[in-house]
Amino acid sequence: MSRNGKLATDLVQKLERDIVTGVLKPGDKLDERSLSERFGVSRTPVREALQTLAGSGLVATMPRRGTIVASITVADLIEMFEVMAELEAMCARLAARRMARADIEKLIALGNECGTLQEHADADAYYEANVNFHEVIYAGCRNSFLERQTKNVRNRLAPYRRLQLHRPGRVKKSNAEHSEILDAISNGDAERAGRLMHQHVAVQGEALNDLLAIVPRGYLEPLAS
After folding, report:
1. Domain range enclosing 31
2. CATH number for the domain including 31?
3. How does pLDDT run across 156-205, given as a tens digit for each residue?
């Protein structure tokens, strides 16, 4: 891989993380010059990184606006959450069968961290710990293709999953669900782990209506409004 190619790969990972953690939000402009100055690289790897992110749907090029963090239609949002729930359920089922004890101990530690953050009612800090909790389960499924696909969809939905935690009572409920999922994985109960994870991730009915009610206007494409 060329030097520019390696720099572009590193930039993709950094920008994905910025989107996942809410540093960059749907509608935010991604200017090549600003990104080049921020990361101390030429515009070539920045351009390549943005092209890669565009291919995954995380960014979009808009007339007269340039490249921005992509928004989404309501229909796409519903469909992506449906797929996300199935992918994470599969990860949890396989993790319950395949996760090493050392990884389970790591998951327990992250579960405890989520519990501590829940007490502080800090949804943003909780979300970052939540991401780490889920990623240990992705890795624990011991299927690298599934892990990559799950992360790809997760990254696309990251701004919306983050917003979910700002719904009243959601952080507390999420933490309780983590405890149940952790218990199922620790005991090797694959079917229960998958079922609980699906319920944890799926957004339907009132939960969907509540999410849409708090989504800022710029997060959704005008067609969906």
Report:
1. 3-69
2. 1.10.10.10
3. 898 888 888 888 888 999 999 999 999 999 999 999 999 999 999 998 78
- From the number of C-beta atoms within 10 Å of its C-beta (0-12, 13-18, 19+), residue 209 rates as exposed
pLDDT of 88 higher than 90 = yes
Same domain, yes or no, for 59 and 104? no
Same domain, 64 and 81: no
Q: Which residues contact 89 (CB under 8 A, 6 or more apart)?
A: 194, 195, 197, 198, 201
CATH number where 170 lies: 1.20.120.530
Q: How many domains does the chain fold into?
A: 2
**Contact in structure between 113 and 134 (CB atoms under 8 Å):** no
Task: Tell me the sheet residues that pair with 69.
Answer: 59
pTM of the model: 0.82
DSSP state, residue 72: B
Give the mean model confidence (pLDDT) for residues 198-220: 86
Beta strand ranges found along 7-157 (DSSP E): 59-62, 66-69
| 222 exposure class (CB count in 10 Å sphere: 0-12, 13-18, 19+) | exposed
The pLDDT tens digits for 114-136 are: 999 988 778 888 988 999 999 99
Same domain? For 57 and 105 the reply is no
Whole-angstrom distance, CA of residue 225 vs CA of residue 222: 5
